Amino acid sequence: MTRVNALARQAEMLALLQGAREMPSVPDFLLVFVIHMAAVTFASASGFEVSFSGTLDRVRPAIVGISTTANRVLTNELLDDENVRRILGLPEGAFIVETNATTTGSGVIIDGDQGYIVTSRHVIADADDVAVTLKDGRVLPAEIVGSDATTDLAVIKIDASPLVALGWGRSSGLKVGDFVAAVGSPLGLEQTATFGIVSGLGRSGLSVDDYEDYIQTDAAVNPGSSGGALVNAAGELVGVMRGVPIPNERSQGIAFAIPSDIAAQVVQALIKDGEIKRGWLGVSVTLARTDEGVSAGLVVDQLACNSAAERQGVRLGDIITALNGRALSTEVSFNNFVSLLSPDAHITLDVRRGDATQRLALTLSNPDSIQTAPMHPLLDAVVFGLPVSSPSRACMPTGPVLLEVPPDSAAYAAGLRTGDYLTAINGEPAFSAGRIEGLLESNDGKISVDILRAGTAYRIEAE
Fold first, then answer.
1. How far, in Å, CA of 413 to CA of 411, rounded?
2. Which of 304, 305, 280 is nearest to 368 (CA)?
3. Among the four residues 3, 34, 87, 171, which has the most C-beta atoms within 10 Å?
4. Per-residue pLDDT tens over the stretch 36-81
5. Catalytic residue of the set 148, 152, 350, 420
6. Is a pLDDT exceeding 90 seen at residue 153?
7. What CA–CA distance (Å, rounded) separates 38 from 425?
8. Is residue 143 within 8 Å of 117, Cβ to Cβ?
9. Is the distance from CB of 366 to CB of 279 less than 8 angstroms?
10. Which of 171, 185, 226, 365 is labelled catalytic?
11. Omega prior to 162 cis, within 30 of 0
C-alpha cells in the first residue's frame, strides 16, 4: 500500500471515529468496537505490527523470579505499645523473631556470561538464602554481589548457562507518552507483562529512597514486581521497577521505575566493588525565588564544618547557579547529582555571593580516609569527621560531624542524619576520637547523644 493510500485510510478512520462520537445513541460497546477496528485498520495501513509478542519473546527469558528466606526480628508499631506488649506477655526488652520469613520479587539478567542479575535491594535485604527461578523452570541458588540503599538497587549472581541477558536502553531518551511494558513476577505470577505509557519523568518527593528520579508509568504493578524490567518498544531495559509508590498500599494506576542511565552506573560499581563509594560535599541547598516567584538559584542553607565545600570556599548564603556548568533548578536534582559522585571527584560550582559571581573548583572528600572511633550499636556504621581548624566563622561546633548515616542503620532509625554535629555523649563533650571511645566504653548499655542540626539542639536516647 502506498503512503498516499495509507494516509487516506487513516483519514477515513478518523472521520468514522468523529461521526461515532457525535451520535449519542451509539452504545458504548459499539463505540469501543469502532475504535478497535480503526486501530487495526490504521496498523494495517501504516505497516505497524499490533502484537508486541515478538518483543516479549526476546525479553521474557531475561526476567527471573526471586524468593528469599530470612530469620529476622518482627517489627510492628503495635509491638511498641506498652499495653499491647502487656497483653502479649512480652517483658521489657523482649522481641519476637520471625523465622523463615519469605520475600518475593523480580530480577533482570543483565550479563548472560557471568550470570549477573539486577533487582531491588529491599527484595534481598537481610536474606539468608536467595533463590532464582528462570523462565525454563530451573530454580537456582544466588549469591549477593552488592547492594545500595540510596537507590534501592542490588546485584545477585547465579551459576548457570545458557542465559539470555537484556540490553540496557537509554532512559534519557524517553518522553512522556512513549509506549513501555513492565515485566516481572507480581504476586508470584512469573513472566507477567503489563503495558502502558511513560506518564512522567524525573518524579521525586515520595520519601521512599534517598535518590529519587523515577520514571512514572501506568503499566500495572503489584507486590513482587519490584526489581523487574521496564522495557521500551524495542525491548531494551530502560528502567528497573521500584514498585508501588507507598509501602503497604495498593497501586492506584501509578508505578515507578529507576532510570536505566542511573541503574547501569550503580550496577557497574556494585559488580566492581560490591558497594557504592560516595564522596562527601557537605552542603544543603534550598530553592530561592525572586519576588515575582521566578527561580533565582539554589541557596546554601546548611554548610557542614570541615566539609569539602566549606574548606574549599563555599559559604552560607551562596547561591549556586550551576554544577559542572549545568544549571540545576531543584534541590532534588542537586542532591541526586551529588549523590552519584565518587570520593575525590572534581567538580565546579558557579556561585553568586552578593553582586559578585565566581567559579569554585572543589574536590570531594573520601569518607574512607576520615578518622573514626569505636561505636556503640546505635552508632554502628556511622562515619565521623573529627574537628580540625576551620577558616569559616559560620562553623562554630567543636564536635565531630556525621559524614555518613546509612538509611538502613540503627542511627538513622533513631533520628540521626548526615550532617548532624555530635556535641555530647551521655551529657559529656565529645571532641576527639579518644574522648568518644572512652564515653562509649563507659556506658551501661544506655546512651544519649546530643546533636546540633541547623542551629537546633536535639537529644537522642537509645539502649
1. 5
2. 280
3. 171
4. 454 444 444 444 455 678 888 889 999 999 998 887 665 666 666 6
5. 152
6. yes
7. 72
8. no
9. yes
10. 226
11. yes
CATH superfamily of 283-367: PDZ domain (2.30.42.10)
pLDDT at 282: 81
Q: What CATH number is given for 51-274 in this structure?
A: 2.40.10.120
Cell 523482649 belongs to residue: 94
The residue that leads in pLDDT, 453 or 370, is: 453
Query: In whole angstroms, how far apart are CA 98 and each of 70, 89, 101, 381, 395?
Result: 8, 17, 6, 24, 46
3-state secondary structure at position 1: coil
Residue 346 appears among annotated catalytic residues: no
Tens of pLDDT, residue by residue over 239-252, are: 999 865 544 455 46
Tell me the range of 96-105, 182-191, 296-305 where mean pLDDT is highest: 182-191
Name the catalytic one among 67, 106, 120, 122: 122
CATH architecture of the region 370-462: Roll (2.30)
Per-residue pLDDT band for 362 (boundaries 50, 70, 90) equals very high
Dihedral class, residue 207 (left if φ above 0, else alpha if ψ from -120 to 50, else beta): left
- C-alpha span between 421 and 385 (Å, rounded): 9
| Neighbouring C-beta atoms of residue 104, cutoff 10 Å | 20
